[in-house]
Design goal:
Layout lengths: L2 H11 L17 H17 L2 H17 L5 H25 L5
Helix pairs in contact: 2-3, 2-4, 3-4
């Protein structure tokens, strides 16, 4: 065999460039945790400091919605409703106590 023949034989034995499938898209995590914490905050906000806890609940529920949690949008709306109910109950309690702001 000639040196050219040996090179040709060796080049045929080399594996061709193997292409691997692309990695799966990065999965965003934390949507469920944000939704749970946001929901609990919104429920607490019904009775205690609705502007503070309700706002936290709205924000965290919205972030869970943006991260792709399938119930995030429903919880976001529920947090808005809970905040409104909390503010209304606070106003009603203030009115019933006879103290006007």
């Amino acid at each position: 065999m000639s040196p050219d023949g040996e090179l040709a034989a060796h080049s045929e034995c080399r594996p061709q460039h193997m292409s691997y499938p692309p990695p799966p898209p990065a999965r965003r995590t934390g949507g469920r945790t944000l939704a749970v914490v946001g929901s609990v905050s919104a429920v607490v906000g019904i009775l205690f400091l609705p502007v503070v806890f309700g706002s936290v609940g709205i924000l965290l529920s919205y972030l869970s919605y943006r991260r792709g949690y399938k119930y995030g949008r429903r919880l976001w709306i529920a947090a808005i409703v809970a905040t409104i109910v909390g503010v209304a109950l606070g106003a009603l309690a203030l009115h019933q106590s006879g103290q006007n702001p």
